[in-house]
Design goal:
This protein is mainly beta. It has no helices and eleven strands. The strands form two sheets. Strands 2, 4, 5, 6, 9, 10 and 11 form a seven-stranded mixed beta sheet that branches. The chain is globular, with a radius of gyration of 14 Å.
Length: 124
């Protein structure tokens, strides 16, 4: 079972940047579908960067153009570069891994492994 450990969170002022990392162990991330999520207390997890069935990275409108996700298979690590941060980005950020559930020509990622999270706090 793959294990995930995030790092890189912290406190920044609005307009600042952070780069989150997620190191995987016990498994090769290339075998999994992986993504980044965030959660504010009292709300559901929000996907902030995922790779879809045709290999495109998808971002919600709230972060598109400011967040960039990539992975380094050689280092078994995921990254999330976050620029121009706003107070609305304040949340606990998680990386997640799962297996693909295929349906015809497409698939959905069934996330079942989560890191412990790293807190991002943006002040105005």
């Amino acid at each position: 079972q793959v294990q995930l450990v995030e790092s890189g969170g912290g406190s920044v002022q609005a307009g600042g940047s952070l780069r989150l990392s997620c190191v995987a162990s016990g498994g090769t991330i290339g075998y999994y579908c992986v993504g980044w999520f965030r959660r504010v207390p009292g709300k559901e997890h929000e996907g902030v960067a995922e790779i879809d069935a045709i290999g495109l990275t998808t971002y919600p409108d709230s972060v598109r153009g400011r967040f960039t996700y990539w992975k380094d298979n050689a280092k078994n690590t995921l990254y999330l570069q976050m620029n121009n941060l706003t107070p609305e980005d304040t949340a606990m950020y998680y990386c997640a891994a799962g297996s693909r559930r295929h349906s015809g020509a497409t698939w959905t990622c069934m996330y079942n492994t989560w890191g412990q999270g790293t807190q991002v706090t943006v002040s105005s």
